[in-house]
Amino acid sequence: MPAVNRVFAAQLAGLPVFGPDGESIGKARDVVVGLRLDQQPPRVLGLVVELGTRRRVFVPMLRVTAIDASAVTLATGSVNMRHFHQRPHEVLVLGQLVDAPARIAATDARVAVVDAAMEPTRTRDWVLARLAVRERGGRLALGRRRSTLRVLPWSEVAGLGLADLTGQPQGAGRLLMLFDTMRAVDVAATLRDLPVKRRHEVADAMDDERLADVLEELPEEDQKELLAYLPEERAARVLEVMSPDDAADLLGELAPADKNRLLDLMEPAESAPVKRLLTYSAHTAGGLMTPEPVVLPPDATVAEALAHIRNPELPSPLASMVFVCRPPTETPTGRYVGCVHFQRLLRDPPAELVASAVDTDLPTLAPAAPLAEVTRYFAAYNLACGPVVDADDHLVGAVTVDDVLDHLLPEDWRETGLRDRTGGDTEEVIDRA
């Protein structure tokens, strides 16, 4: 995204939204933020976009590549066309925050929120960093109302909690506000300690993407229980968002009838790689791999390769290596040429072709390679990610070191190894909930 220091929500409203090829998507109507329990600025989750059919959909902020005075541009990738549904911990900036009464924390002066400014962080997230407020009350001598507009940091304005803005009780919403500041693995550990009823309330309130992240970190039995609780259509949507290898692992543990029913409910483009993974044994390179590594043709440039591995949604192990293959570049690819390590990309000129930096000496893994062989491979070559190539020299996926460790650790490691990582604040919220 181009460098933008600050974007006010009122300026954003009504801007046209375009896809990566310039096609018209709709118009921006609001900004969705997730409130927090501490005084840190809330994270901007995404935009509410109104389509030409007047349907309003949610677009995650990570899909936004550019914002300027005339338009919003989205990145390549699918956008969920389902009707926008606001979650309990979410607040609409224009719909709920603007015009809300508040106080200046230092003086207790009464103010009204006039606008709110989004600012990018170093991690490429956006936060609602500042509020434009107007003081309320007080008149000048001639009867005119004093109207002092001030732009203050979020932390200096009080009275904008969840209950203040929505009137909702803070049960599940309060937990979600806390979870927004935590890693998915720590949310999963906390979720396991909740009563089943509250766990289900939190799952209902989470968006599909966040629930998918948390589901991937839960032990197998908890995954199955939570998936069984969800309505089948939503369960299929969550599986679509999960990493294909994690979705395949979970579906592989279900009864055949349940597995096939969920696969049928998934979008064909999302279910196809999962079905392919299910054909491999779980403890082989094929069963461990993800079918979505970074794959580029030989005529791609180093600059293009770096742009791909900068994607904040790409897991770190997958970002450590780019695979070069003849078209098609979707797995299973054309002929596998070799790989390029990210350190090499950092050293080469941006205009160089990736073909000139390819490592053709690194051995590959066969899909049927057992877990012991995969483990020795990673230890021998000091890798975070390794290519899986079939007998016809097609890249079919990549194994990452985190998936290897997941299968090497005891089956109950998620239950015993993360119990103390969530901290006292979480326990306090659970007690109150």
Automatic annotation (TrEMBL):
GO terms for cellular component: membrane. Keywords: CBS domain. One of its GO terms (molecular function) is magnesium ion transmembrane transporter activity. It comes from the Bacteria. PROSITE patterns: CBS. It holds the Pfam family PRC. Residues 289-356, 358-416 form the CBS domain. This is Mg/Co/Ni transporter MgtE (Contains CBS domain). It comes from Amycolatopsis arida.
